Amino acid sequence: MPLALLALAISAFGIGTTEFAPNGLLPDLARDFHTSIPTAALLVSGYAFGVVVGAPLLTALGARLPRKGMLLVLMGLFIAGNLLSALAPSYGVLMVGRILAAFSHGAYFGVGAVVAADLVKPEKRAGAIALMFSGLTIANVLGVPAGAWLGQQFGWRVTFWAIAAIGVVGLAGVAALVPRTPRPEAGLRRELAAFRNPQVWLALGMAVLGWAPVFTVYTYISSTMTDVAGFGAGAVPIVMILFGVGVFAGNLVGGRLADRALVPALYATIGATAALTFLFVPAAHTKATLIIGITVLGAAGFSTVAPLQLRVLDVAKDAPTLASAANIAAFNLGNTIGPFLAGLTIDAGFGYTSASWVGGLLGVGGFGFVVASGLLERRTRTRAGTRTPAPDTVSEPVPAEAPRHQPA
């Protein structure tokens, strides 16, 4: 494994920790800011909104910057956002800090995915992307549960101070281990041209809806555990660790599946995620089945990440950076839509398990995008094959003694 992948994973660990940290702190945040839990959950959706806006915006602004320099700038922005969150005197300021940190998220993973794919042989690109994203998955195993524990023991502000410190370590890792890279050859105009390909938009649709089920359920997991399954608050970090174990395993499996056969991997991973989200409705009512259900759902959900990221790199071809960042924005658009819709159903009195119904329906939509993309790809190949003469219709060769054209 190239050391540069380790550096990317270190920063991904910090980013993943701050992205998911509020999930284990919602009751504390709601109490301190005198809001409801669904309102506190908007700190998660607000972060996702920041990714959606920041990913294409910052990537476009840095289109001509060397990729290593861009990564360093983004980690600096990440640290600043978490420091502001730790010091926030009000809910509004905390939301601003979350969005500021989120601005670095999408662009970082978008640029980082391109860097990771370029570090290895073509047949190992999905595996390299999965290794970078392993930092994000380890954050779910260690970072998020540790953040929840710190918040419960010392207050939620300590969690954000710790995340800022992780960001400093990530910044140092990128500076020391990621090799210097030349300025990208593709300018902003060329990057934008990739969006003329309908397959790019279909890939983004897969990312929005195919991943949304996991985050829709996970956003309300602490409340589902305590109010539906009957867990005590102290069990929340432990179950989050198990979720993270599933996430870590699923991420690596998804990378291997995508390197073997990308489109079948998309069918399998997105279809499984949607189905398991529906199954989480009955599973959430008992402790044992909730633990199994959230672990398996985490594995299925994160198995989609590497295939989805590789898909957009493939269809964007020679100008992948902005499309890659847009794909991260698409993931987080799903993170915004899912919890928001689930919050509406919860506020309407349908209970915390309604989040699974919302997530499952979104997953079905994501699977529909995979089907549409596969049909379009098949149609394109069929048309290309029609234009290519079949071997048995090739005309007889011209006799060698009378060549029609002489080389200049």
Task: Give start-end ranges of low-pLDDT stretches.
Answer: 390-408
Tell me the fraction of residues in β-strands, as a range: under 5%
What's the CATH C level? Mainly Alpha
CATH architecture: Up-down Bundle
Order of helices and strands: HHHHHHHHHHHHHHHH
Describe this protein's structure.
- By secondary structure, this protein is an all-alpha fold.
- Helices cover 80% and strands 0% of the residues.
- The protein is built from 16 helices and no strands.
- The chain has helices at 3-20, 26-32, 37-61, 67-87, 91-118, 125-154, 156-177, 188-193, 198-219, 221-229, 236-260, 262-283, 287-302, 305-316, 320-350, 354-387.
Write the layout of secondary structure elements.
Elements: H1 3-20, H2 26-32, H3 37-61, H4 67-87, H5 91-118, H6 125-154, H7 156-177, H8 188-193, H9 198-219, H10 221-229, H11 236-260, H12 262-283, H13 287-302, H14 305-316, H15 320-350, H16 354-387
Helix pairs in contact: 1-5, 1-6, 1-7, 2-3, 3-5, 3-15, 4-5, 4-7, 5-6, 5-15, 6-7, 6-11, 6-14, 9-12, 9-13, 9-14, 9-15, 9-16, 11-12, 11-13, 11-14, 12-13, 12-14, 12-16, 14-15, 15-16
Membrane topology: Multi-pass membrane protein
Region (Disordered): 381-408
Keywords: Cell membrane, Membrane, Transmembrane, Transmembrane helix
